[in-house]
Every structure is written in C-alpha cells, then in structure tokens.
Write a structure and sequence with these properties.
CATH class: Alpha Beta
Order of helices and strands: HEHEEEEHHEHHHEHEHEHE
CATH architecture: 3-Layer(aba) Sandwich
Largest sheet: 6 strands, parallel
Radius of gyration: 17 Å
Number of helices: 10
Distance between the termini: 35 Å
Strand content: 15-25%
Structural class: alpha/beta
Helix content: 25-40%
CATH topology: Rossmann fold
Number of domains: 1
C-alpha cells in the first residue's frame, strides 16, 4: 500500500536518501550521520531525520530518541525543532506499530509525512531519512517502512550488518526492495560483529549477487563511542 503526495510536497522535494537496513541495530544511524557529515564537508547543507524512533529516554519531561539526537548533531541545519526531526518517539524499544498501539497513537505513512513537513520543505540541500528497523518493519496493520520509503521518493541505501547470516538477510532484503517502485542507490557493509569469521568473503558474495553498487565498508565501531 502506498499514498499519493500532495502537489506542495512534490514541489518541495530536494536531493536526499532514505536509509534502510537488513535488520534493526545494523548501523543505519551511523551511516546516516556519516553521509550527512560527508555532504557537509563538500559544502552542502543537510537535514537528517528519524521520523519514527523507539527505545527513547525522557529528559526534562520530554521523550527523545538517541538516534535522532545523533542525526541532529551531524546536520548543519540547526533551525528545525526537534519535533520535526523525530516526530514520533516511543520509550520502549519495540516495533513501531506495537508502540503506537500501546500509546494510542494513529501511526501511518500519511501522518509521518505530514509531521516531517518542515524538514522536507527546509532550505537544506540534502535530506537524509533514517527508517526504523528493516524494510518491512510494520508501521500499522497495513503499511510498512517500505511504503514510507516509496512515499518519500528518495533513492534508498541499504545498510547490511556484517555478521553471521548477513548474506541471506542482504539478498532477501534486496529482492524485496527491487520489487518496489524505488531507486536503489546502493548498499553499505557495516561491521557489527568484531569476532565474525571470514567477513570479507561474506562481503564478496553479497557484492556478486546484488545488482547495486557497494558504496562503502565501515569497520567495527563501538556503539558507546557514538554520542549525541
């Protein structure tokens, strides 16, 4: 299921990327922040957003997503309010559709697009959007992150978490993405298991089987070193 965008939104579309992953915790935030920082170093202005985030924490009676704060830190457009960077934040680290139901929130592609309107229409050169979970992570009973990516309309970058099982995860996710009405910009290999055996061989077979460019390889990074 997908939605039609209004004319004003279509006119506001700028360059950007939608970041998805083979699973949750595979490094989507790291990749989104790295892309934003790279673009800034090349003289572009960026906005990086996490429209839906779970596993947040409360500070000053307000709920924050750690991932969204990292993205905010690595964007150079500082005029947007936090609510535009992370319109939907949930405290429990659970799937978005479950979190929304538990909190009595009507979560849908249309609602997410509407709440991220300020970011989409900002004066930044690039917008980087980080999805939640993987490609088919549910938003509600009928829509998934795939529908959200299609609605935004930006090229999609797949983050492959390099660990045991990553070959199957990458091939399955790519096959599903390839049947959608999206442009696949490429994929990034992110080492998430420092003790994995033969990681290079895993990357090579994924490279061979995916008809999309390998955009980069990120060595193992201790998550505690990423701060907001």
């Amino acid at each position: 299921m997908s939605m039609r965008l209004n004319k004003n939104y279509k006119k506001s579309i700028k360059k950007g990327f939608f970041i998805t992953g083979t699973d949750t915790n595979v490094g989507k935030t790291l990749v989104a922040a790295s892309i934003s920082r790279t673009l800034i170093s090349q003289g572009f202005s960026t906005v990086a957003i996490k429209p839906v985030g779970s596993g947040g924490y409360i500070k000053g009676n307000k709920l924050y997503s750690h991932d969204a704060l990292i993205l905010q830190k690595y964007s150079n457009n500082k005029t947007l309010p936090y609510s535009s960077i992370n319109p939907f934040a949930f405290q429990e680290a659970i799937a978005p559709h479950i979190a929304a139901k538990k909190n009595g929130i009507n979560l849908s592609v249309a609602q997410i697009i509407s709440r991220s309107h300020k970011a989409l229409t900002s004066n930044a050169d690039y917008i980087i959007i980080e999805g939640a979970g993987g490609w088919f992570t549910p938003i509600n009973d009928h829509e998934t992150m795939a529908d959200l990516a299609i609605a935004y309309g930006y090229p999609v970058i797949l983050v492959v978490g390099i660990r045991l099982g990553c070959i199957n995860h990458a091939l399955l996710t790519y096959k599903c993405m390839n049947t959608s009405r999206i442009k696949i910009a490429g994929w990034i290999a992110n080492f998430i298991d420092k003790n994995m055996l033969y990681p290079k061989e895993n990357i090579e077979i994924i490279k061979l089987r995916l008809d999309a460019p390998l955009l980069g390889i990120i060595p193992y990074v201790n998550k505690t070193k990423m701060s907001c």
